[in-house]
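Input record, target 12 of the design panel.
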Protein backbone atom coordinates (compact mmCIF):
# COMPACT_ATOMS: atom_id res chain seq x y z
CA UNK A 1 0.00 0.00 0.00
CA UNK A 2 1.06 3.52 -0.69
CA UNK A 3 1.42 6.02 2.11
CA UNK A 4 -0.97 8.91 1.93
CA UNK A 5 0.93 12.17 1.59
CA UNK A 6 -0.73 15.56 1.50
CA UNK A 7 -0.68 17.54 -1.69
CA UNK A 8 1.61 20.60 -1.91
CA UNK A 9 -1.43 22.86 -2.29
CA UNK A 10 -2.92 21.53 0.92
CA UNK A 11 0.31 22.16 2.80
CA UNK A 12 0.46 25.72 1.40
CA UNK A 13 -3.09 26.55 2.49
CA UNK A 14 -2.52 25.07 5.92
CA UNK A 15 0.56 27.28 6.33
CA UNK A 16 -1.42 30.35 5.22
CA UNK A 17 -4.23 29.52 7.64
CA UNK A 18 -2.00 28.80 10.62
CA UNK A 19 0.10 31.91 10.02
CA UNK A 20 -3.03 34.00 9.52
CA UNK A 21 -4.57 33.21 12.89
CA UNK A 22 -1.78 34.78 15.02
CA UNK A 23 -1.51 37.72 12.60
CA UNK A 24 -5.25 38.29 12.91
CA UNK A 25 -5.25 38.11 16.72
CA UNK A 26 -2.19 40.34 17.15
CA UNK A 27 -3.54 42.94 14.75
CA UNK A 28 -6.92 43.06 16.54
CA UNK A 29 -5.22 43.51 19.91
CA UNK A 30 -3.00 46.28 18.51
CA UNK A 31 -5.97 48.02 16.86
CA UNK A 32 -8.07 47.89 20.02
CA UNK A 33 -5.42 49.13 22.46
CA UNK A 34 -3.86 51.90 20.39
CA UNK A 35 -4.73 55.52 21.04
CA UNK A 36 -3.35 56.69 17.68
CA UNK A 37 -6.52 55.65 15.85
CA UNK A 38 -9.90 57.24 16.45
CA UNK A 39 -13.10 55.18 16.71
CA UNK A 40 -13.96 55.29 13.01
CA UNK A 41 -10.47 54.23 11.90
CA UNK A 42 -10.46 51.42 14.46
CA UNK A 43 -13.76 50.15 13.11
CA UNK A 44 -12.50 50.31 9.52
CA UNK A 45 -9.32 48.41 10.40
CA UNK A 46 -11.24 45.79 12.40
CA UNK A 47 -13.65 45.18 9.51
CA UNK A 48 -10.79 45.16 7.01
CA UNK A 49 -8.81 42.60 8.96
CA UNK A 50 -11.95 40.55 9.51
CA UNK A 51 -12.76 40.26 5.81
CA UNK A 52 -9.11 39.96 4.70
CA UNK A 53 -7.71 37.81 7.51
CA UNK A 54 -4.17 37.37 6.12
CA UNK A 55 -3.66 40.38 3.85
CA UNK A 56 -5.49 42.85 6.13
CA UNK A 57 -3.15 42.46 9.12
CA UNK A 58 -0.11 42.59 6.84
CA UNK A 59 -1.32 45.89 5.37
CA UNK A 60 -1.98 47.16 8.90
CA UNK A 61 1.52 46.18 10.08
CA UNK A 62 3.15 47.90 7.10
CA UNK A 63 1.05 51.05 7.53
CA UNK A 64 1.63 51.25 11.31
CA UNK A 65 5.00 49.55 11.93
CA UNK A 66 5.26 50.75 15.51
CA UNK A 67 2.96 52.32 18.01
CA UNK A 68 5.27 54.68 19.83
CA UNK A 69 3.76 57.64 21.58
CA UNK A 70 3.50 60.54 19.14
CA UNK A 71 5.66 63.50 20.04
CA UNK A 72 4.50 67.08 19.72
CA UNK A 73 6.26 67.40 16.35
CA UNK A 74 4.25 64.47 14.94
CA UNK A 75 0.85 65.81 15.99
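The sequence produced for target 12 reads:
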Amino acid sequence: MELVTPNVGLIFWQMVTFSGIPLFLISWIMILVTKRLDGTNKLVWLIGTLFLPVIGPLIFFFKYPSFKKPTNSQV
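Residues 32-64 form one domain.
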